[in-house]
Amino acid sequence: MNTQLLIQLLVNGLVVGTLYGVVAMSFVLIYKATQVVNFAQGELLLVGAWVCWWLLTKYQVPFYLGMPITLVFMFLFGIAIQIVILRPMIGEPIISVIMVTIALSTVFSALMKWMFGVNLQPFPRIFQTQNVNILGLQVQTVYLMSLAVSVAMMVGMAWFFRLSKYGLAMRATAFNQQVAQSLGISVKSVFAMAWAISATVSAVAGVVVAVVNGVSAGLSAYGVKVFPAAILGGLDSVGGAVLGGIIIGLLENVAHFLDSEYLHWGNLYEIAPFYALIIILMIKPYGLFGTKDIERV
Amino acid sequence: MAGQTLIPAGDFRTSYAADTTVFPTTTSRNAMIAGIVLVCFAPHVVNEYILSLLIQIGIFGIAALGLNIVVGFTGQISIGHAAFFGFGAFTSAYLSNRFGIPVFFCIPLAGVVTAAVGLVFGLPAARLKGLYLAIATLAAQYILLDFFARAEWFTGGSVPASAEPFSIFGYMLRGDKQYFYVVLAYVIVCYLLVTNLIRSRDGRALVAVRDHYLSAEIMGINLTKYRTLSFGLAAFFAGVGGALYAHYNQVVSNEGFGIDRSIIFLAMIIIGGLGSIMGTLMGTAFMVLLPESMEWLSVALRDSPIDQFLGLKNNIAFLREMAIGVIIIVFLVFEPDGLAHRWRQIKAYWKLYPFSH
């Protein structure tokens, strides 16, 4: 048994898992606030990463300036999507809404390929030192940064929902739209804000992944991995999404370990989350922390 | 009421039989028969390229019809249809290569095997609904694609599997011209089958599940049975379409059964009209002709300023992908009932032509 590899993969899984958690969190945010299942979440990551890459390489903007510009752009981008495309869909059947987000993901991924090409583009170097030695384990600096950023975003999100006025308004809207509206909350702006925050948070995750792996069309795969994570945690639980993301990240890497050490099936790494997804849906469709849907006639 | 020749000015149906009849007037029935006869002459009139487009419309039309049973009639969403389409293609190739079964029998057999697989993945459908189901079918798509890449005994792995040409009682059909009639026969049979399915008790049960599943259950419709059944049926037609596709190309590779193909299938039924049988065929024709017409447009615009600005030659693939997404959004926002609805409006306009009010 290769302990060194196992530990390396577990660290890897934790880092990737927290990123999944962050993306799943922004996915759940949209679902909770607006009842829209966003199949274009991965493309939000992609757009954010490309915009940041573009600023940094084409215009030589320093990172500390390029990142905020990207985030502002994504904030406005999220609002724009909500107003232009999702707002006319309010009240339409769920199939139509799902289809619109699927179509959006097609449009965005094709647009990005058209504008920036299909090749992997390396991200400009941000850190001077490549590796940090922690307890005798070589850890890449970008991994540490990724972990720190993810945790910071989770804490920020928790603060936003627990303590800020706007976060409370969003929670009220998620709980009951009519009651929220009668209390003077503008449901329209809450919807737009949910998309804006989700797009911004996704863009941060996208940039982090881009710094680690470079930017390419494959980045949107993170959007697909969101589903196992969000389903495992429960579709309407923000905390559950984070936990689900970490579990899926670890599961992927454990599958990778078992595969490379014992099974030699190849590619188990990529497909394991989907088997997990089917099993979860069979046993516990509402996830670990999701609210069970009870219907009365 | 089958004796009428023209559409009556109002609703004068007096029996259930008149309400569920396939052709409301004799004219519509004769027009359909005349249309099919006309299409039979197509291989002798049109050139090879248009013939291949017609064959594609037929093949994808059958698979899209299956998807319309699930999405349009039963109201369950499925994002994994292309994987079933691929499964049918591989199954038919495998059956004819491995066991030497004549291709004539392989195609329906592939449909049956694919239906069995569809039932397995439809089992979660019995418990889930709406978006949970969408996500489950998404997982099915990835799992089946992984299976295609993994199961070399079945699909040939990275080497594309070869499929025998279509033969009937020892007589080998060669070329598109003859294959066209095979596809046409399958299209007619499949569309007739589904039209009659929707008129039957089972078909009405599917529609009831879509319209209000709680009411349907209270009326004694077994939800589990009909949800799973609709998945099985959808997979059956996907399998038949896939098998026809395999024997048309005579080679089945791993490419072309991904999620993008599933999205195109969904686009076909949305553009045609959810829950409309003839609309499915219209939507399929639209989606097959859309990329082709973009190709024609890019050829026509070669070296013009637009071409230089967009870089059409290198980017046509991305523009095509984008067009598919944009078309879906446009139809969902502006014409959610699809082309079938538009067609009905045109008919209604001409029915009362000079005095439309």
TrEMBL record, chain A:
InterPro entries per UniProt: ABC_transp_permease (IPR001851), BCAA_transport_permease (IPR052157)
The keyword Metal-binding appears for this protein: no
Membrane topology: Multi-pass membrane protein
Gene Ontology CC: plasma membrane
Compartmental location: Cell membrane
UniProt keyword terms in alphabetical order: Amino-acid transport, Cell membrane, Membrane, Transmembrane, Transmembrane helix, Transport
GO process annotations (BP): amino acid transport
Domain of life: Bacteria
Pfam families associated with the record: BPD_transp_2
Residue intervals passing through the bilayer: 9-30, 36-56, 63-85, 97-120, 141-161, 192-215, 227-251, 271-289
GO molecular function: transmembrane transporter activity
Keyword Cell membrane: yes
Family as reported in the entry's similarity comment: Belongs to the binding-protein-dependent transport system permease family. LivHM subfamily.
Protein name: ABC transporter permease
Organism: Bradyrhizobium valentinum
UniProtKB/TrEMBL annotation, chain B:
Tagged with keyword NAD: no
GO molecular function: branched-chain amino acid transmembrane transporter activity
Cell compartment(s), UniProt: Cell membrane
Keywords, sorted A to Z: Cell membrane, Membrane, Transmembrane, Transmembrane helix
Keyword Disulfide bond found: no
Alphabetical list of InterPro entries matching this protein: ABC_transp_permease (IPR001851), LivM-like (IPR043428)
UniProt feature coiled coil, ranges: none
Domain of life (superkingdom): Bacteria
Membrane association type: Multi-pass membrane protein
Transmembrane portions of the chain: 49-70, 101-123, 130-149, 179-198, 229-248, 263-290, 317-334
GO cellular component annotations of the record: plasma membrane
Main location: membrane
Protein name stated in the entry: ABC transporter permease
